Prior knowledge:
GO molecular function: kinase activity
Shape: globular
Order of helices and strands: EHEHEHEHHEEEHHEEEEHHHEEEEH
Domain DAGKc: 17-124
Domain YegS/DAGK C-terminal: 149-338
Distance between the termini: 27 Å
Amino acid sequence: MQAFKNAVFLINPNRFPGYARKLKKILRIYKASHIVECRRPEDFRREVEAFAAGEKRFLLIWGGDGTANLAINAYMSAHRRISTTSKALGFLRGGSGNGIQDSYEVPVSIRAQIRSYLEGMEREYIQPVDLIRADDGKASLYCQLLGIGLDARVLEYREGAGRGRPGMMNYIAASLQSWYRDFSLLQDTKILEMEDGKYAFKGPRSNAEFPFKHFTRETRSPLIEIATRPYYAKMFKIAPDVVCNSGFMDIYSFNFIHRREILSNIFDIWNGWHRRINRQRAKRDRPVIERYEVRQVKLMKREPFAYHADGELRRCDNPAVEGRYTLHCSIVPSAVNFLVPGSFYRKFHPFEDL
C-alpha cells in the first residue's frame, strides 16, 4: 500500500460514472492518497502537467483512448520543459475500446488492475516505449497508432449523423456505412515517402526483407495504419508485429481491391492473422498486406484528408506543398515510461532474476 502514496490517480468520470465511483471506493481501501477527477480536457491537461512538475513518480489514468492520448500529449509537452525521466504513466480500463490497455496486457477487472499496478510500483515494472510524432502542418501531436482511409472514414461517420457518442454499437454502424458506401472512394492515390527502414514481409513459411534509406510507394490501399502498439480497440489487433521499443514505426498497407475482401477476411483481420491472409492472397496472385519498419514517413495526397491518432479524428488540410497535402510522421524512441503489468514487463526483461 505504501507504493500508492507515490502515485496520482487521474479519473475522467464522464463515460462510466458508476465504474468511476467503484474505482474510487477500491482506491480508498488501498489507502491511495491522491485521487483527482477531471471532467474538462483543460483541467485534465493541467493536472498532468502538475504531476510532471511534482514529486510523485506514478500517474495512473482512468479513461478511454482519447483520455490516454490527451494524457500522453500533455505529459510530453511538460517533458520538454521539465526533467521527468524517473516518472511513469499507467492506464486503467476506463473506456469502451481500451486499445492501449490491451496492448500492454492490463487485466480486465478493476481489482486485478489495481493489484497489478501496485505490484508494478513496488517492483519497478517500468518500460520505456516509443511514440509517433505526427505533424500535419498546423499542429503536431504524439500517438501510438495513426491511420488513414477506412478507419478514419468510420470515425467521420460516427461523429456525424447524430452518432457522436463512443461505444461499440455506434462504431459497428459507422463501419458498415463506410464499408458499403465509400469503399471505392477510399481507393484514391496515396504516396508514402519512407526513410531509414525496411520492407518486412511476414509469411506463413518464409519472411522477406529489404532495407532502404529512401523508398517511395504509390498505393491505392483503402487502409494504411502506422503503429507502435498492436491493438486498436476491443482486442482488434491491427498491427500484430509491432514491438513497443524497437525504435521503428510499423506501417501496414491493406491492399484490398474489393470491399467483399474486407468482409471475407474480417475475422483474420481482427485477430491480426496477416500471415494467413497473405498466404491465401499470394496463392491467388492478389496484393498482400504490406508491412514496413521505418523511422520517418511522409503520407501525401492531392486532397485534404482525415486521419486518426489513437482513435481521435483529425484532418490534414494545411496548404498543399507542390500540390500535395502532407502528414509527416517520425519515431521518438523511448519517449515515455509506462508502468506495466508483470506479465508484460517480464517479456522485455527475461533475465533480470537470473
